[in-house]
Write a structure and sequence with these properties.
Layout: E1 2-6, H1 14-26, E2 32-37, H2 40-47, E3 50-53, H3 57-65, E4 69-75, H4 85-99, E5 103-109, H5 117-128, E6 132-135, H6 138-146, E7 152-153, E8 176-180, H7 189-206, E9 209-212, H8 217-230, E10 235-237, H9 243-248, E11 255-258, H10 261-269, E12 273-278, H11 281-290, E13 294-296, H12 304-317, H13 323-333, H14 335-344
Parallel strand pairs: 1-2, 1-4, 2-3, 4-5, 5-6, 6-7, 8-9, 8-11, 9-10, 11-12, 12-13
Length: 345
């Protein structure tokens, strides 16, 4: 069986690449994956799979015609808060696959926000037409229940991604704190300056080595480099292309401060204490589900000392998820694999 995978792949985003790596890891062994990618050559090189340009219409049609099933491969594909185009692109592909008679699967989805009636209508129709649906948070599950659409709810699939050790870390000092910030309108110059100064204070107090982890170079690298200039001898910018290695960076990290959803999931799954800076409802959902402390960026305190003291207190007194809780989340995340096995047999 040939299966076409569609997501925000090949765009250099560590979280979406982790979803692709996990999906490839979870597919039944007798399935041949075909991937729609923003950079087909790069995706083929990384994963050794057949790839087509996600924005080349004729290539997409060719790929659909050659496949037996179609999968929305994880993440917040169906939302219109950050992009009006995104739900119509992914929704259009799903509708096309369903019209062509392919088995269709919505896998590991985080649905919404859906602010417009047109996108809600299309999403409802898409999900109702799927062979199988899995979602990663309770808010998405409630929406599908309201629509009377059968589905399973399980933690984000990336909980189950196998991590790899990172040779570069061997010579770096311990203890360590990981930081992942991304470019966003809510991360104003003033807020970034305050966070940077609070990081300087946190480092002085704890003597921890700061790992600055850009999850998407185009959005994160400039910020990481700017912070590094303020902590030149006690920090390192680490760019990891392999999602399994990126996840492995969080092994042995005492505390992780993250904006990006999958930086927090990877950190929590590797036993790091997490502090969230939310710019998106999906991060708030994770904070709620796992009781992760943090701030909405728009509500970030103006007082640098308050930020520093909050972080320092959490560094010394906060708790990571228990090994039992982590294993439970990993086990539950494999429900996404079971759904694929059932749907593609």
């Amino acid at each position: 069986m040939r299966v076409l995978l569609s997501g925000y792949y090949g765009k250099g985003n560590g979280g979406d690449e982790a979803l692709l790596a996990t999906l490839l890891q979870m597919l039944p062994p007798d399935v041949t994956p075909v991937v729609l990618s923003g950079n087909p050559e790069d995706t083929h090189q990384h994963y050794g799979v057949e790839c087509y340009n996600r924005m080349a219409f004729l290539q997409v049609i060719k790929a659909l015609r050659s496949c037996d099933a179609f999968i929305w491969g994880g993440g917040s594909l169906i939302q219109d808060a950050t992009s009006v185009i995104s739900p119509f692109y992914y929704g259009g592909l799903m509708a096309l696959a369903q019209a062509m008679g392919l088995k269709t699967i919505a896998w590991g989805q985080g649905i919404g926000p859906l602010l417009r009636s047109q996108t809600r209508w299309l999403a409802h129709r898409n999900f109702a037409g799927c062979t199988q649906v899995s979602v990663r948070d309770r808010s998405s599950s409630r929406l599908l229940s309201d629509w009377s659409i059968p589905h399973i709810l399980a933690p984000d699939p990336v909980w189950a991604l196998e991590s790899k050790p990172v040779p570069e870390l061997v010579d770096l000092p311990k203890p360590r704190i990981a930081v992942t910030l991304r470019n966003h309108p809510q991360l104003t110059e003033n807020r970034l300056a305050n966070l940077t100064q609070a990081l300087v204070n946190l480092q002085k107090e704890t003597q921890a080595f700061i790992l600055l982890l850009p999850f998407q170079k185009s959005e994160d690298l400039g910020i990481a480099e700017k912070i590094h200039t303020q902590l030149p001898d006690v920090s390192r910018v680490l760019c990891c292309e392999d999602p399994q290695i990126l996840k492995g960076v969080f092994r042995g990290v005492e505390m992780s401060i993250g904006m990006r959803l999958h930086s927090l999931i990877m950190a929590a799954s590797e036993g790091s204490r997490c502090f969230a800076l939310s710019y998106d409802p999906k991060v708030n959902r994770l904070m709620e589900d796992l009781e992760i402390p943090g701030w909405d960026l728009k509500d970030l305190p103006d007082d640098v000392d308050l930020i520093s003291k909050t972080w320092i207190d959490y560094y010394y007194n906060g708790a990571a998820l228990s090994p039992h809780k982590i294993q439970s989340l990993v086990n539950e995340a494999f429900l996404h694999r079971d759904l694929l096995k059932e749907a593609l047999n």
